[in-house]
Specification:
Length: about 220
């Protein structure tokens, strides 16, 4: 059996970096996708310093062709994903009444639609392996929307809904789908919502066995 692989779409500081470190400590190869190569290279250097294997590909999660190609590149280099973490989101402070239909559509491509692109890309390998874990990050805006984060609130509600829909669609398989709903601000000094605490929640979800799968955990 080859080295397990976690693919992180939306690699960056905070949650994604902590998840990469947590899974890397357990022997996972870390496949990273984000828009900026310089940032990805910096994350790869940090992981290398920690003796964690990694690879990366550049893509905008809003572009399904680019995202699909990036996921294929990582799979070719390191093997099929054991775990997928979709952590991409367009975060902006903008009132809902200041949004336009087009701006909502553009944000939705990153906040929700990109997750489906990523899931569809990793599913064949997970089906072949008869197992896998798909994790989607959400927030308190999923159930308590903010008018000042109108588009993001819609996106987080969508990503939570997608997690439940995917879990239902895959319930007859050993593929685990779950959403991590962060109920407040992510802060390093918060024992419940620090990046490391959220990463630990992701690890525990990965360790769950069929029959005991949780579809949502809150941090």
């Amino acid at each position: 059996m080859g080295q397990p692989v976690i693919v992180i779409v939306g690699m960056g500081p905070g949650i994604a970096s902590a998840v990469a470190s947590r899974f890397g400590q357990e022997g996972f190869h870390i496949g990273m996708i984000a828009r900026r190569e310089d940032k990805l290279a910096a994350h790869q250097h940090a992981l290398r310093e920690a003796r964690i294997d990694s690879s990366y590909a550049v893509a905008d999660a809003a572009d399904p062709e680019a995202l699909g190609a990036a996921l294929a590149t990582i799979e070719e280099a390191s093997g099929g994903a054991t775990v997928l973490l979709y952590n991409a989101a367009h975060i902006k402070w903008k009132g809902i009444l200041d949004e336009t239909a087009q701006s909502l559509i553009e944000d939705f491509k990153v906040n929700v639609a990109g997750a489906l692109t990523a899931v569809r890309a990793v599913l064949p390998a997970m089906r072949h392996a008869d197992g896998g874990t798909i994790l989607l990050t959400s927030s308190m805006f999923a159930t308590r929307p903010s008018s000042q984060f109108g588009s993001l609130s819609i996106g987080k509600a969508g990503i939570r809904n997608m997690a439940y829909s995917l879990a239902e669609a895959l319930k007859a398989t050993n593929i685990h789908v779950a959403t991590i709903t962060v109920k407040g601000q992510v802060r390093a000094d918060d024992p419940q919502r620090s990046p490391q605490a959220i990463a630990e929640a992701c690890w525990k979800l990965y360790q769950q066995e069929p029959g005991d799968f949780s579809t949502e955990v809150e941090c």
